[in-house]
């Protein structure tokens, strides 16, 4: 009832050309609202300078999404600290996207375009909409607007079709059954593109006939499916492609005493993470730069002294951690993070995978990369000794 009144007042303000305020959620109304609406929520505090800086953008985003399937709301953690604690809020502002009451933390740039990309990715992973309510969907409809964002990570098996095509109509129920059976396959997206409404997108991918089925990995076309369009044939094709694309960890020669238990006994300055310690090692209010490698990898061996130098640079800074993972001993951990080559360097912010580093592997380049990321998010104060903010 409270939410209904708020929305009613908001509509009155809209028709009288008065700007609508962002929906304020509290302990009294948040649970039911998040169950019924797909909602971006900003958790903030009045005294937080980053929150004040972000406020105009959040209001603009709210106005853009009026009468839309996506709701924009906020929670004042100064007034409701227990509510924010229940949602694991430890820094401000924290932004989460809630789908059917379950929240995913957003850790990207505080720009409307980036928020929209994150929203599209999460919707593609799990939901579509019916009357504004999120429901499970096995097949994602792709357009020129969302194609790159949604297919950029993981595997995608995509049908390019035309509604009038007879072969497409025959394939449709088979593809739907395929999606139903493989809906819980980790890292797999099954999708369609309607070439009558997405002509430029289909031309870009050189679609000459319908249906055309293409296999993508991390946003890149890898293969065109030319086998039988029967269910079991397509299922075997997907399983084989995913198996072939998995990282090969068996190339390493046997390494003596490399169990996780023995590795955790190394020097505390080593910053070695394992499956047991990884979550704790990256899930904190700060940045973790993680080197996923293997002892037998020559590029990893070359990087090792530079990585040690970088770790020493930040050894006294609790908010910036330089860590590594041995993928020969923590194979499942590396597979879970999609590691397919060594070394792979990933920067985590507040426990979320943020940026994969692909620059030069010298000290200056990696240090400048870290500085640029902190400056981008307004966290450059973490670089100062003891996090002291110096006033001129």
UniProtKB/TrEMBL annotation:
Annotated transmembrane regions: none
Domain of life of the source: Eukaryota
UniProt keyword Signal, yes or no: yes
Protein's UniProt keywords contain Signal: yes
Swiss-Prot/TrEMBL keywords: Signal
GO cellular component entries: endoplasmic reticulum
Biological processes, Gene Ontology terms: protein folding
Signal peptide start and end residues: 1-20
Gene Ontology molecular function, alphabetical: protein disulfide isomerase activity
Gene3D superfamilies, sorted: Glutaredoxin
PROSITE patterns to which the protein is assigned, alphabetical: THIOREDOXIN_1, THIOREDOXIN_2
Domain (Thioredoxin) ranges: 4-148, 240-375
Family, similarity comment: Belongs to the protein disulfide isomerase family.
UniProt-recorded name of the protein: Thioredoxin domain-containing protein
């Amino acid at each position: 009832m409270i939410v209904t009144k708020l929305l009613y007042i908001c509509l009155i303000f809209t028709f009288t050309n008065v700007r609508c305020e962002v929906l304020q959620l509290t302990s009294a109304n948040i649970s039911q609202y998040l169950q019924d609406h797909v909602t971006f929520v900003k958790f903030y505090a009045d005294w937080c300078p980053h929150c004040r800086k972000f406020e105009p953008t959040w209001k603009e985003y709210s106005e853009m999404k009026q009468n839309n399937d996506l709701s924009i709301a906020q929670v004042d953690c100064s007034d409701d600290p227990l509510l924010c604690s229940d949602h694991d809020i430890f820094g401000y502002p924290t932004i989460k996207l809630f789908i059917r009451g379950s929240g995913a933390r957003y850790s990207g740039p505080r720009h409307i375009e980036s928020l929209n990309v994150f929203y599209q990715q999460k919707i593609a992973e799990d939901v579509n909409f019916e009357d504004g309510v999120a429901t499970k969907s096995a097949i994602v409809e792709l357009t020129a607007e969302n194609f790159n964002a949604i297919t950029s990570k993981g595997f995608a098996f995509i049908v390019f079709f035309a509604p009038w095509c007879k072969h497409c109509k025959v394939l449709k129920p088979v593809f739907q059954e395929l999606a139903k059976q493989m809906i819980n396959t980790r890292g797999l997206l099954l999708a369609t593109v309607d070439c009558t409404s997405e002509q430029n997108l289909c031309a870009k991918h050189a679609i000459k006939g319908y249906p055309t089925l293409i296999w993508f990995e991390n946003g890149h076309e890898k293969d065109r499916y030319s086998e039988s369009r029967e269910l079991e044939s397509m299922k075997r094709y997907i399983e084989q492609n995913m198996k072939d694309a998995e990282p090969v960890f068996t190339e390493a020669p046997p390494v003596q005493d490399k169990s996780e238990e023995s590795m955790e006994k190394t020097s505390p300055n080593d910053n070695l993470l394992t499956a047991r310690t990884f979550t704790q090692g990256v899930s904190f209010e700060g940045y973790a730069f993680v080197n996923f490698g293997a002892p037998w990898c020559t590029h990893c061996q070359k990087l090792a002294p530079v990585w040690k130098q970088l770790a020493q640079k930040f050894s006294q800074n609790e908010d910036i951690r330089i860590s590594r993972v041995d993928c020969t001993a923590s194979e499942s951990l590396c597979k879970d993070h999609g590691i397919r080559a060594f070394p792979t360097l990933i920067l985590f912010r507040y426990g979320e995978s943020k940026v994969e580093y692909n620059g030069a592997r010298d000290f200056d380049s990696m240090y400048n990369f870290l500085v640029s990321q902190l400056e981008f998010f307004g966290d450059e104060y973490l670089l100062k000794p003891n996090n002291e903010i110096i006033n001129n």
